[in-house]
Amino acid sequence: MRKYLAIALAVAMVLGLAVSSFAAETVAAGDTKITIGGELRFRGEYQENTANWMDNGTKHTSNYDTRVKLAIKADVNKNTTGMIEFMTGGATNDVQTWDSSTGNGSRGVFQTGNYQANAMNIYQAWVSHVNSSLLGFPVGLKVGHMPLKLGRGLFFNHMKQGDDAIVLFADPTKALHVGLVGIKFDEGVATNVTANTNSSSDADATALVTTYKLDKDNSLGLNLTYVKDRNFYALTGGNPYVANNALNTNFQAQADVYNVGFNADMKFFGVDFYADIEKQWGTCKNCDNGSATAATYNPRNLKFSGLALMLGAAYSIDPVKLTVEYAQGSGDEYNLDKNNDGIRDDTKFKGFITSLGAEQHYTYVYEYRTRTAANAGLNTTNTVSNVGGKWETNGLSSANAGLNNTRYIKVAADVKATKDLTANLSYYNLKSVKGTSMTAALGNATKAARISTTSGVTTVNNHKTSTDIGNELDWVISYQIDKNLKYWVEGGYLWVGAAWDYFDTVSNTNKGGDDIYAIRHGIQLNF
């Protein structure tokens, strides 16, 4: 199981019991009410330059996918509820891509196709009980597998797949809600453990979540999360144990991380204001390799200092809703290497830590469909070069990294054209907090080809870092065909900035990256 540097949690809808809306109900024996519902969703998508914005190789891809949900909710009485929801996909996704089966049942001349779609997995499975007489106010317990999210999801959002958790919650007053959540991310089995390492290899988290509702339009939230991961390797090169042949021992990476978050939703003079601020600190033991050779491996402890914020305002003038939003997450940077020994001088990781699902969190193209400017690697082997004593940072090779090393300004309009037709148009100006090169990690040229020295002057031909990610326009147009049946078209176009520049090894010249875009349509029935 992939380890995360830090994970925060809170039950969706402020530890509530919200589930999909169902249409069909039937009454079982006694007072138990059984509610059955589900979803059928089919989508087709075309992507251009999302994986390759250079003048070589494959430039586009397209496919269709299916998602099926089937849920059963049992309300035994007003105090006790059980929930089971099945969903297609696997441990890391929720869709079945068309014709993605490993086998088929076709015979004859064309022995392809004729296969069965993949199996259903458990998305939710939990029991909840509320007692209003024990302490004189409602207290409750919820236990099982459930979707989880903290605040507006800047730091932690596992709504897509869910986690195993135990939730204790209480409502001392009508305005105050308090929750204590324990979650199990990994019941690991320690291996290669020696006397100087911790024999535990579990990954656990605990969160205290509070919400205070001032009135129907204004509320405040505060949460504190502690994550303990004793088999951590997300930022250490992919291995929690690094051997030191000279000392004949192993070093185990361990993370202790804290995240405190404050969020607010307020309304003044008809304008909705919202904010989410997240601050992180903690220690990562044995997380900085210090040296690439096992014989001289000398691990160091690193400190975390991530920070992120989101500020927004929305105003509605029927039939239009206008939104302005600013968001930013800190980025890491390799500070001056005064000794030129390939080891960062400082012992801080400044990047904002995120733990998110493989889904869209803000932009459709930049964050959802192509790589981001996030810099999550601590090892010097992940950097491009040490020019002028300063390490350059790389973009991640995967999407869905959230606000790590990214800031944006968003202007959006939601329009309800008719009863059944709605549209959203969002424009983003995108920057990285620390300069980055989106192309560096692709390895499109050797280091010798990228870096040259003439008369004592060193030039990085294609990877001058830049904070200019670009500008993106996103859209969603949705039409309600019938009750619970909708069709929509969505997508985005990213005008890439200098961070996407690359060095062309054929012409030996620097080039700007091609613009990136994607478009998707879908139809969905809820019942």
Which terms would index this structure?
527 residues; mainly beta; 18-stranded antiparallel β-barrel; two-stranded antiparallel sheet; 2 helices; disordered N terminus
Structure explained in plain terms:
- The protein has 527 residues and is mainly beta.
- The chain has helices at 12-15, 447-450; strands spanning 24-27, 33-48, 60-75, 80-88, 96-97, 120-131, 139-149, 156-170, 176-186, 203-213, 219-229, 241-244, 249-252, 254-268, 271-288, 300-304, 307-317, 320-329, 348-349, 355-356, 386-387, 390-391, 393-394, 406-416, 421-437, 451-454, 457-460, 466-482, 485-496, 502-504, 509-511, 516-526.
- The strands form five sheets. The chain has an 18-stranded antiparallel beta barrel. A two-stranded antiparallel ribbon has the order 12-13.
- The two termini are 34 Å apart.
- The relative contact order is 0.13.
- Residues 1-21, 191-198, 290-295, 377-396, 441-451 and 457-462 have low confidence and may be disordered.
Question: What's the quick description here?
Answer:
With 527 residues, this protein is mainly beta. It is built from two helices and 32 strands. The longest helix is centred in the first third of the chain and has 4 residues.
Shape from CA axes? globular
Number of helices: 2
Q: In this structure, how is the largest beta sheet organized? A: 18 strands, antiparallel, barrel
Low-confidence stretches: 1-21, 191-198, 290-295, 377-396, 441-451, 457-462
The average pLDDT is 80
β-strand amount: over 45%
